[in-house]
Amino acid sequence: MAKRDFYDVLGVARGASPDEIKKAYRTKAKELHPDRNADNPDAEARFKEVNEAYEALKDPDKKAAYDRYGHAAFDGGMGGMGAGRRGGGQQDFASAFSDVFDDLFGDFMGGRPGGGRNRATRGNDLRYNLRINLEDAYSGLQKTITVPTAVPCTVCNGTGAEGGAEPATCPTCSGMGKVRAQQGFFTVERTCPTCNGVGQTIKNPCNTCHGAGRVEKERQLSVNIPAGVETGTRIRLAGEGEAGLRGGPAGDLYIFIEVKEHELFQRDGQHLFCRVPVSVATAALGGDIEVPTIDGGRSRVKIPEGSQTGRQMRLRSKGMPALRGAGSGDMFIELAVETPVNLSARQKELLREFEKLSESNNPQSSSFFSSVKNFWDQMKG
Questions:
Q1: Residue 274 is assigned to a ligand binding site
Q2: Fewer CB atoms inside 10 A, N or C side of the chain?
Q3: Is 156 annotated as a binding residue?
Q4: Which of 230, 259, 288 is the last residue of a domain?
Q5: How many of the other CB atoms lie within 10 Å of CB of 321?
Q6: Is the pTM of this model over 0.70?
Q7: Could you tell me if residue 115 is inside a domain?
Q8: Mean pLDDT estimate for the chain
């Protein structure tokens, strides 16, 4: 029986790219695998046919020969391209399917072959939570912090080997960090048991770091906190994280800012709010009050006559500075008209007299009770 055209076997055109050929092979291989077709006696033969086609077309030189001479390119008469491989069908298949196995499962198994060649592993990033007060967030500050972390071992210079000697290439995996085992049609890849995936071994581990190339230690760092930071601001210090394993690059240190609540000011972005109590007399007659500002200064604010609770006045550019920018927010003064308590008999007498004389001076009360009367009248109707 004549062999089918390899392109027809895979279901691709003759001008198909390597990626298209591999994609078609993956689809056919999964579809026709004998383990998934126990009830189909033809599946195994077609499965081998697909692998033979892919073995020929995945290699650029073989593909070029096949495009020119067809199946005759592998019959031993065209320069010996196929002579040395005839009779090695299972080996050819394993080679072909191994490519797809790597493609499908390489990342799941821990990365591509050769991933263990880089013995130096990057250190972990670290997080440090820093609480500051609102005044420091306004002006910025230089802060010294203590960070527990891993630092390079000074005894072995981070190599992990006694005396700073260079580690040797792992004899089991030849520096790959992984070993492969042939199991029928499949090539199974596992982490090398000798070097645990590092790709190198240490004959005489450092007595101080026990071969890790780093030791635990507290470090003191000086951190510049810029003006304008707020809760949630993140500051990155590159290379100040955990030291890498066996001389690998260090991770980064991330400082997360938390600004504590203030007893006088409430913050909303760049703006500040300050609730100021005023007496009934001041709210009614008007006057001047003195209020604090976040920079430690004072500002005089004029209270208009007839001011009510909740009235706001703006002090421009008295808020928080913009983070790494120009300008500042504003400060808002919110009035809270305070009701006097613990009145003397004379004070109560004066207030009752004042109330009788001020029935027409309370516009909000007049409007409210007028609306209440209309509501009751409607309910009766």
A1: no
A2: N
A3: yes
A4: 259
A5: 21
A6: no
A7: no
A8: 81
Report the range of poorest mean pLDDT among 17-31, 60-74, 106-120, 134-148. Answer: 106-120
Is 153 known as a binding-site position?
yes
Question: Residue 119 — very low, low, confident or very high, per pLDDT cuts 50/70/90?
Answer: low
Alpha-carbon distance 211 to 70, whole Å? 57
Phi, psi of 292 (to 5 degrees): -80, 155
* End-of-domain residue from the set 105, 136, 171: 105
CATH number at residue 324: 2.60.260.20
Is residue 304 within 8 Å of residue 284, measured between CB atoms?
no
Mind spelling out the 3-state secondary structure of the chain? CCCCCHHHHHCCCCCCCHHHHHHHHHHHHHHHCHHHCCCCCCHHHHHHHHHHHHHHHCCHHHHHHHHHHHHHHHCCCCCCCCCCCCCCHHHHHHHHHHHHHHHHHCCCCCCCCCHHHCCCECCCCEEEEEEECHHHHHHCEEEEEEEEEEEECCCCCCCCEHHHCCCEECCCCCCCCEEEEEECCEEEEEECCCCCCCCEECCCECCCCCCCCEEEEEEEEEEEECCCCCCCCEEEECCCCCCCECCCCCCCEEEEEEECCCCCCEEECCEEEEEEEEEHHHHHHCEEEEEECCCCCEEEEEECCCCCCCCEEEECCCCCECCCCCCECCEEEEEEEECCCCCCHHHHHHHHHHHHHCHHHCHHHHHHHHHHHHHHHHHHC
Is 173 assigned to a binding site? Answer: yes
* Number of compact structural domains in the chain: 4
Cα 169 to the center of its chain, rounded Å = 35
> Residue 106's pLDDT is what?
46
Q: Of 203 and 312, which is predicted with more confidence?
A: 312
Tell whether residue 209 is among the known ligand binding residues. Answer: yes
